[in-house]
Specification:
single chain, alpha/beta, L-fuculose-1-phosphate Aldolase, Rossmann fold, 25 helices, 18 strands, 44% helix
Length: 657
C-alpha cells in the first residue's frame, strides 16, 4: 500500500480541519481501507464558542458522509468536555449516547456525529484515523489472530478484543489505554473490526495507517506463499437463471430488487471451489458489514428456488435464536454465491447493489487469502455477536423512519423509440418513479438522452433479430431481469390513397409498426415471465378506432398491433404478465411537429395553431409527458388487475366515442 500524500496538494489544506479533510479523502480513495461510508476520522481544535469563550472541540466524521468525498461540512463539531464526562459512565445506551452527543454539538444543523465519537475524544492525539482495512481484519479473523497481531507489531500497537461499536467499545479502548503511554503507540488494533492510528500531525497519523496496513499485507503475502493466487474459472452465461434468482429474492424481500452478477474469472473461480458453501457462510470481514450484507450470503446451486427458500428458513432460525424483541428484517440474502457462475449482489437501487458488490468482493477475496495464510483458515465472530450489530438499536430505529419507496423502485424497464417524443417521456416517467430504464432507438442520440435520466441507451434496429436479442440480453445482464416493456417504436408513413399506395410504403409500416413489436415480444416474454408484477404497454394510435383516408399503411399496422396486444394478453395472463395498449392522439410536442407543420395543418382546418392543438372534446393539449405518466401508471398497481385493455389519451374524440 502506497502513501498518497502530496506536498503540493496538502499545501492547499493548511488549517487543522482542512487538513483533516485532505487526509480523510486519501484514506477514502483506497477501498482496501474503507468501503462506502466505513471508517471515521477526527481532529481536535481549540476555538471560541458563540460567546467568545475558548473551548476544546472535536470535529468528527458525521453520519452519512463518505471519507472519499467528505468536505468540512461533513464533520460534526462536538464539545470535548461533555464527551469525556460521558466516557466516565459505567453504562449508556447507544440511543442515549447519540442524544447526548447531539446536545453537545456546536452546530445543531451539522450531521449526527459518528457512533465512535467518544472513542475519538478519549484518544489524546489531535488527529485520529480509523479504517476497516482488509489486511487488518484478515490478520484477526482466524483462530490465532491476536497472537499474529502481537507477533507482527509487538508493543507498537494496543490490542483490544472485539467489542460492539458504540459506548462499549469506547469504554474498552479507554481501559486498554489506561496503563499505556499512548504517545508511544503507532496504533490500536480492534480485533475483528479494524485499526486506529493517531498523531498530533495529520500526515504522521495518515502514514502510520499506511505503514501498519502495508506490514500486514506483506505478512499475509509471506504466510500465504509465493505460489498463492486467487483461483480463476470461466462459465457459460445463464441469463434466464439469473432472472429466476432475482425474482425469488424480490419475493423474499417483498419488493423488487436489482441483481448484479460478477462473472469475472476470479468471482467464478471462488464460486467454483468445492469448499465455497462452507467458506462463504462463516461470516463477514467485519461486523459493520452485516448492516449492508447480512451475516452470510446465500449459496445457490442447481435449484435456485429451493436454495433461496432454505436461506430464508435458516435466516428465520438465526433470528429466533438470537432475538430479544427486535423486528425481523426480510429473510432475503443481500448477496449470493451462484455456484460455477459467479457472485450476485442485490439492491433496490443500482447504488445499493454496487455497494453490496464492493463489500462482497473484498470479502471473498480476503477469505481466500486467510485460508491460504493461516492454519484453520477463516474464523470470524460467532453469530450472536454479528446479530447484535445487524440488529443494533440504532439500525432498528431507522426501520421506523424508512420512507415509502418510489412506485417502480427496483424494477427494470425497456422503452423502445426512446430518443425523443413519447418514448422519451415514457422513459423519463418510469425513471422518475424509481425504475432502471434501458432505452432502445435507431437514433444514436439515445445514449445521451438516456444518460440525462440516469438510464442506459442502446442503439439498435428493432427490425433486426440479432440486435433485439442482444439489447434484451444486455438489459438482463446489467440488472438481472426485466419487469416493464414499453414497445413504442414506430413511424408515420407518408399518406397515400390505396390506389396510389406503394408496396414499399406498406411493407415499411408493417415492418416497423407491427413486426418489430412482435420480435421484441418474442425475445422479452421469457424474461417478463420471470419479472416482478410484469407489464407490457404497446403504443398504438387513435387511428385504430378513427382512421383517416390516405393513412392505410399506418392505420392498418396500428390495428394489427392492437390485435397483437389482445393475443399477448390472452397468452400471458396465466403467467401474471399484463399486456395493454395506449392510443394517443394529437401529441404535437415532438420533433416531427415543427411550428411550420403545425401552422399548415391548422390552416387546412381553418383554425389557429392553439385551436388545432386542442381540437378534442376536453379542449386540452395532449403532451408527451401526459402519455408518459399514463404509461407509468399502466405499469403499476393501479392497473394491476387490468389486461387486454385499450386506453385512449386523446382528450376525448367524438369519432372514437
Amino acid at each position: 500500500m502506497k502513501s498518497l500524500w502530496n506536498n503540493q496538494e496538502a499545501a492547499q489544506f493548511s488549517k487543522p480541519l482542512a487538513r483533516r479533510v485532505y487526509t480523510s479523502r486519501l484514506l477514502g480513495k483506497n477501498p482496501d481501507l474503507v468501503l462506502h461510508g466505513g471508517g471515521n476520522t477526527s481532529v481536535k481544535v481549540r476555538q471560541p464558542d458563540f460567546f467568545g469563550s475558548p473551548i476544546d472541540v472535536l470535529y468528527v466524521k458525521g453520519s452519512g458522509w463518505d471519507l472519499a468525498t467528505i468536505e468540512e461540512a461533513g464533520f460534526a463539531p462536538v464539545r470535548i468536555e461533555p464527551l469525556l464526562r460521558l466516557a466516565q459512565f459505567d453504562q449508556l445506551s447507544d440511543s442515549e449516547m447519540v442524544r447526548q452527543m447531539r446536545a453537545a454539538m456546536l452546530d445543531p444543523g451539522a450531521p449526527t456525529p459518528s457512533i465512535e465519537t467518544i472513542l475519538h475524544a478519549s484518544i489524546p492525539q489531535i488527529y485520529v484515523d480509523h479504517t476497516h482495512a482488509d489486511a487488518i481484519v484478515a490478520m484477526t479473523n482466524h483462530q490465532g489472530g491476536e497472537q499474529a497481531v502481537r507477533d507482527l507489531y509487538g508493543d507498537r500497537v494496543a490490542i483490544v478484543p472485539y467489542v460492539m461499536p458504540g459506548f462499549d467499545l469506547a469504554k474498552a479502548v479507554k481501559t486498554a489505554l489506561n496503563n499505556l503511554d499512548v504517545t508511544r503507540l503507532e496504533g490500536i488494533v480492534l480485533m475483528n473490526h479494524g485499526l486506529f492510528t493517531m498523531h498530533d500531525d495529520a500526515r504522521e497519523s495518515y502514514e502510520a495507517m499506511i505503514r501498519l496496513v502495508t506490514e500486514a499485507e506483506d505478512f499475509l503475502a509471506r504466510a500465504a506463499g509465493s505460489s498463492f493466487s486467487l483461483p480463476v474459472a470461466t462459465t457459460k452465461e445463464d441469463l434466464h437463471g439469473l432472472a429466476a434468482i432475482r425474482k425469488s429474492v424480490s419475493e423474499l424481500r417483498g419488493t423488487p430488487v436489482l441483481a448484479s452478477l460478477d462473472a469475472s474469472s476470479e468471482a467464478v473461480g471462488f464460486a467454483s471451489r468445492h469448499d465455497t458453501p462452507d467458506l462463504a457462510t462463516r461470516g463477514p470481514l467485519t461486523p459493520d458489514h452485516t448492516i449492508r450484507t447480512k451475516r452470510v450470503p446465500a449459496v445457490i446451486g442447481a435449484d435456485s428456488q429451493v436454495d433461496l427458500e432454505k436461506f430464508a428458513e435458516d435466516y428465520r432460525a438465526y433470528f429466533l435464536a438470537n432475538q430479544k424483541g427486535e423486528t425481523m428484517l426480510s429473510p432475503d440474502p443481500r448477496w449470493a454465491v451462484w455456484q460455477n457462475h459467479g457472485v450476485i449482489s442485490f439492491g433496490t437501487s443500482e447504488a445499493e447493489a454496487m455497494i453490496v458488490q464492493d463489500i462482497a468482493t473484498h470479502t471473498w477475496q480476503t477469505i481466500q487469502t486467510v485460508e491460504a495464510a493461516f492454519p484453520g483458515g477463516w474464523r470470524p465472530l460467532p453469530a450472536d455477536q454479528l446479530f447484535a450489530v445487524e440488529y443494533w438499536e440504532l439500525e432498528q430505529a431507522k426501520l421506523k423512519q424508512s420512507k415509502t419507496p418510489l412506485l417502480h423502485q427496483g424494477k427494470v424497464a425497456i422503452v423502445t423509440g426512446a430518443a425523443a417524443g413519447i418514448g422519451f417521456a415514457c422513459a423519463e416517467a418510469l425513471a422518475d418513479q424509481g425504475a432502471r430504464v434501458v432505452g432502445i432507438d435507431l437514433n444514436p442520440e439515445i445514449v445521451e438522452e438516456m444518460a440525462r435520466i440516469g438510464g442506459v441507451g442502446i442503439v439498435a434496429n428493432l427490425t433486426d433479430d440479432t440486435a433485439v436479442t442482444e439489447a434484451v440480453a444486455e438489459t438482463v445482464r446489467r440488472y438481472g431481469g426485466l419487469d416493464i416493456l414499453v414497445s413504442n417504436a414506430g413511424i408515420f408513413t407518408a399518406g397515400a390513397f390505396l390506389e396510389d399506395l406503394e408496396e414499399s410504403n406498406w411493407d415499411k409500416s408493417m415492418a416497423v409498426n407491427v413486426t418489430s413489436h412482435q420480435k421484441l415480444l418474442k425475445h422479452t416474454i421469457p424474461f417478463l415471465k420471470r419479472g416482478i408484477d410484469s407489464a407490457i404497454i404497446l403504443v398504438g394510435s387513435r387511428n385504430v378506432h378513427a382512421p383517416g383516408a390516405g393513412a392505410a399503411s399506418y392505420s392498418c399496422a396500428k390495428a394489427a398491433l392492437t390485435q397483437l396486444c389482445r393475443v399477448a394478453a390472452l397468452e400471458l395472463a396465466p403467467h401474471g404478465v399484463r399486456c395493454n395498449i395506449i392510443h394517443p392522439d394529437a401529441v404535437f410536442d415532438t420533433k416531427l411537429w415543427t411550428q411550420e407543420n403545425l401552422q399548415r395543418s391548422a390552416e387546412r382546418y381553418h383554425m389557429t395553431v392553439e385551436e388545432y392543438k386542442t381540437r378534442n372534446l376536453l379542449k386540452t393539449e395532449i403532451k408527451s409527458r401526459d402519455v408518459g405518466r399514463m404509461v407509468a401508471a399502466m405499469a403499476g398497481p393501479v392497473f394491476g388487475k387490468t389486461t387486454g385493455a385499450q386506453i385512449p389519451v386523446d382528450g376525448g374524440n367524438d369519432r372514437v366515442i
